[in-house]
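Batch manifest, entry 17 of 40.
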Amino acid sequence: MSSRGTADSSAPRGTAPDRAPPECWELAQRLPFPGPAAGRAPYKDSQAIMKVLLLKDAKEDDCGQDPYIRELGLYGLEATLIPVLSFEFLSLPSFSEKLSHPEGYGGLIFTSPRAVEAVELCLEKDNKTEVWKHSLREKWNAKSVYVVGNATASLVKKIGLDTEGANSGNAEKLAEYICSRESPALPLLFPCGTVKGEILPKMLKDRGDDRIPMESITVYQKIPHPGIQVNLNSYYSKQGVPASITFFSPSGLTYSLRHIQELSGDSINRIKFAAIGPSTARALTAQGLRVSCMAESPTPLALAKGLQVALQAPSC
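Output type: structure tokens
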């Protein structure tokens, strides 16, 4: 593990190691002993830990580790990440043009990290980074920038925009939050994927005469990750059937479920399935799978707490 992720064993207790962000040092103090090797979740105590599978790509934070692996480790769960989605970006020239004219919009809506990445790509490809820093960013910050989830909010903040609504947790709750605000005269610009939930647009539209105008633009599409089958085969051959599998999107479920069913066989009934968000939970139910846990918000802590409860409950 990177030295940013754990305390320096030679440093006095209570003194933050050099260069470590404060939140990383605080985390290190929560661990009962220095963390294990990179790629392994830390043990919370000496009891046997449960192996859980998270169908997402790894994203290191400022502490040098994926926050889901770290947080679940603190709850006695050994998490492995397997990516099931890849992304292709679309309509970037058109999106770039819209970003260049904030005066035509009442604000922005971001419901996924990929939409924020599309902004970054537009700025890089069109050499607009300096224009963004000196004028466009300020003009967009004069408007509302709505986001779902802390991960997306963090990326939006990195491109210099102030956010609101991050704690809403999912698109439905964000729509309620937006509806509680003053209706803008100009449309909200909503960069999204080809498979987007319709609840948010519908809720904004269904306000009748007081409807909130919105302009969607498709900037990315999800495709299956090329390594799904190989990575799942490797996991099952080395680790066996996991105690729990967490899906992060309906698309991720679609692309991976057949492989999981084949590898799990009759043992699939022992797996506790978890979902990030209500749309993914509904997709699991539609496939005839019991949802043992739905995280209250799209955060590592919410998932860790939900899985702890679900894995203590007896299997049906």
